[in-house]
Amino acid sequence: MAEYLASIFGTEKDKVNCSFYFKIGACRHGDRCSRLHNKPTFSQTILIQNIYRNPQNSAQTADASRCELHLALPSIIGGFVGAVSDVEMQEHYDEFFEEVFTEMEEKYGEVEEMNVCDNLGDHLVGNVYVKFRREEDAEKAVMDLNNRWFNGQPIHAELSPVTDFREACCRQYEMGECTRGGFCNFMHLKPISRELRRELYGRRRKRHRSRSRSRERRSRSRDRRRDRERRRSRDRERYGRF
């Protein structure tokens, strides 16, 4: 029985624990969900809730009155929401992504992966997921971020159960076939430009190569010290030297 319960944990067959929260770290029912949201006490991944605001998505909200209000507000890249081109939007998004990614690495630790949701549902809109290499870095980030503000709003960060984003993403969206649009309950991840991806994740590969070379140098140094000690030991045995 225990093995069976473990095998269905976090799946749709699990009638106790919420499969959506387990897969994507969020649930459209929130605290009203009939199933448990088991919040992790340790994780490599943190969720920063609703921090990214996509001006283009403002015109797609379900509430018409809210839509009119958003259209009247200037976007953060100048001009009005309706005037933002795809190129300008990508540049704005890349700037946001690079700023957050760089700050996470500089302040808290090495980032393995960062993803931003482009969904419209309240539980997913603007969510940023950051997966650190070390769990202690994620914990440190959550503690610090919850004392900070962004764009005039307090930041809400928490540890997330998501570690495999392949399970959290909408496969139909990736193939351009999702019929649920922005209100899909699985992640629609907004891509960054290829140039920025090479720049950000290329730094990590360079650091790894640098650390690898450093380890190799330390290893060679230890080998040389061992060789010297062996030669000295042989000399002492042969010539009676101290």
From TrEMBL:
One of its GO terms (molecular function) is zinc ion binding. The keyword Zinc-finger applies. It is found in: Nucleus. InterPro entries: Nucleotide-bd_a/b_plait_sf, RBD_domain_sf, RRM_dom, RRM_euk-type, U2AF_small, Znf_CCCH. Keywords: Metal-binding, mRNA processing, mRNA splicing, Nucleus, Repeat, RNA-binding, Zinc, Zinc-finger. Residues 203-223 have a biased composition (Basic residues). GO terms for cellular component: U2AF complex. Residues 224-242 have a biased composition (Basic and acidic residues). It comes from the Eukaryota. GO terms for biological process: mRNA splicing, via spliceosome. Residues 12-40, 164-191 form the C3H1-type domain. Residues 80-162 form the RRM domain. This is U2AF 35 kDa subunit. Its main location: nucleus. Coiled coil: none annotated. A zinc finger (C3H1-type) spans 12-40, 164-191. Residues 201-242 are annotated as: Disordered. It comes from Takifugu flavidus. The keyword GTP-binding does not apply. Belongs to the splicing factor SR family.
